[in-house]
Amino acid sequence: MKTEHEYNAMFQALVDIRQNLNETLHSLDEHIRRAQLECIENSFQKQKDALAECVDGIDQELIKLSVYVEEYQRLCASLKELNEKRIPELGGTPLAMPETIAGDTLATILAQRVSYLTAQGKL
Hints:
The chain has one domain (about 5-120). It is about 80% helix and about 0% strand. By secondary structure, the protein is mostly helical. The longest helix is centred in the middle third of the chain and has 86 residues, at about 5-90.
């Protein structure tokens, strides 16, 4: 039969094993949390970079659009002058002007075009 001392030693060994397991589990849990955090932070940074790329792309397209708007406004003014001055000077009757885009700023013209395309079901 085992003595009380042997039972106490065995009990202490079990307590030590339990403590080691708890410490190992805590360490593993901490490691898993750090790995998950690192993964989420990496994913966040990739998405943040992609978002910045999207904004940059939008900005570049707006710059291109501003060039088209300037060219559109220049052509409209030129066509209007031809129609209202040059054609009558040569004895002709002014022709029907094409529908123009309302607005004189990029923002106004874009808003009008977005409304038009939305009404057409294209946006």
